[in-house]
Amino acid sequence: MPITRSARRVAVVGVSLSDCGRVDEATPYALHAQAARRALADSGLDRSLIDGLASAGLGTLAPVEVAEYLGLRPRWVDSTAVGGATWEVMAAHAADAIAAGHANAVLLVYGSTARADIRARRRTANLSFGSRGPLQFEVPYGHTLIAKYAMAARRHMHQYGTTLEQLAEVAVQARANASLNPEAMFRDPVTVDEVLGGPMIADPFTKLHCCLRSDGGCAVLLVAEEYVQDCRTAPVWVLGTGEHVSHTTMSEWEDFTVSPAAVSGRLAFERAGVSPADVDLAEVYDAFTYMTLVTLEDLGFCAKGEGGAFFAEKDRLPVNTDGGGLSACHPGMRGLFLLVEAVRQLRGEAPGLQVRRPDGSLPELAVASGTGGWFCSSGTVVLGRDR
């Protein structure tokens, strides 16, 4: 009889970062391997248990090439590539596969030398995702990726009165969290005036409204519940997941102020049997300040149009506790880093800011929500520890 998801729970038992920030001498494959080794050591399990691999963004046949480099021969693979949401979507697929008995232990692993490659002139900064397919109808008008986010931010400002200062506060708070994180790439505090006074990139975004470009990688190991007792670390359970795609051309995006997290978040919370009010912290994709603001609205942590005021609240939900892509690291598809930080927080192992509940106990529930493209895709994962 097939194993049902209700009969087989899935836990994250290993997480780790590779070297991050400025890594000039490593290859992306080396960062994959370093992160994988560290995550496996974190779990305390033997490598022979891994029978599933999820990888994207490297090589012609991403999971095949990465698996070979790591010395793995998985019987379950995933190479879903939906931008920054990739890893939350992959985590959902991996959890389903483990729950169904198609795999016992799935490794999600990523590595990128995005910063080093540009410095060494092995590549240039990408202004566009290409001009084929539906995108051919927008490219002649000069829509860069950043410009698309900037237009969406301007619509939110027009529709809800969101201010430049409120958007800047997102960057200020991210840097405040990063200042406590020894692993963050940029740790010096910034002010609202410094954010507003920086070089203009795409109106209304100045430089500090935009994510940094770094090198780095990370890995997450998910296993079936029967292996948890053999792990070095306490399990963090995958409670619910959701995924959604919205559009690729801006003309097909019905509302610039609503992201696909409005669907993926609702699904994840419903499947986890919890509500946003139950959550202790959120790790959300923040390639730009507006992403943080609108994702928090769409996940239900504040009402639509109130994201700008959210960061002025005294006792608000902790968000992007490591400093996020705006200040900690952003080597490309950053979604896997969100899962790593969420798990560290639930374990009480955050290297910087450690979230505590009002009674001083460790957090019990966290959400990680990744966004891909220009709000084209979203994956949301609700995680919890044993209570």
UniProtKB/TrEMBL annotation:
Pfam families, A to Z: Thiolase_C_1
InterPro entries in alphabetical order: Thiolase, Thiolase-like, Thiolase_C_2
Residues covered by the Thiolase C-terminal domain: 242-385
The organism's place on the tree of life at top rank: Bacteria
Listed PANTHER family: ACETYL-COA C-ACETYLTRANSFERASE, NON-SPECIFIC LIPID-TRANSFER PROTEIN-LIKE 2
Protein known as: Acetyl-CoA acetyltransferase
Origin species: Streptomyces wedmorensis
